Prior knowledge:
With 272 residues, the chain is of the alpha/beta class. The chain has five helices and 13 strands. The chain has one domain (8-51, 78-270). Residues 110-263 form the L,D-TPase catalytic domain.
Amino acid sequence: MNREHTVRTSTLAALAAVLLLTGCGGSPADDGGSPAAAGAGSGPAPRDSASPTDLEPREPRAERGDDQSRQRRGIRREIPGIGPRTHDRIDPRTRQVFVVTGRSTGSNRATAVLYERDRRIGWQPVSGPWRARNALKGWTGDHRLNDLRTPIGVYGLTDAGGRLPDPGTELPYDQGPAFTPSGVNFEGESLTGAFDHVVAVNYNREPGSTPLDWTRPLGVGKGGGIWIHVDHGGATKGCVTLARPQVAELLKRLDPEARPVVVMGPERHLAR
């Protein structure tokens, strides 16, 4: 956490002009419309998402007792609401998981909690629960361009950026005027400040690049440009939003050495 922080140079002015006509970090061919929140999809696990992997044997849950009693009994906490199938997609080396749980498949409201793994007692919440918003039409396991749904899945969180200066994150942070949306969203709410701070979700993108990078490994038809960004008062086009102080807190807490991921989707899906 004390290593030198990497800050990328801001995007060229030409990119800023294009961004105003597209979604969150989207290319001209991406999920078009206002830059409220770019769409992206799920379907087959993208190469930049956390891959299914064999995990160490899971220990039984404690029925009762505080952290000290758990330690004495050798019982480790797991992430609440995360079932075995979803759990198996989290890299065993990951020590930070940001869980965004939707109320239902069609809901655009969610709850978000950041968990960190303690080697002795397992997973424990360190931030949240926070209110979150997602895409207008809810969630999908097979997102397509412009379908107004947020992708379900487990995805890495490796890159950040925004219009405002770095609030103190350890992630590479790209600051520049290209993170300036214009216009209004679905219900007429202003988009001003929505991209002041963003975290790129590694769905259909190249990890290690600015959130504004247009590379789409799965093809343009699968969307791209999914971000966690500042709430603008309404549903998004595909991104996840949090209140401004919470986005800043998330950025400060995310540690590249902890291999952070976001696990997101409707409650019933994540519980599988």
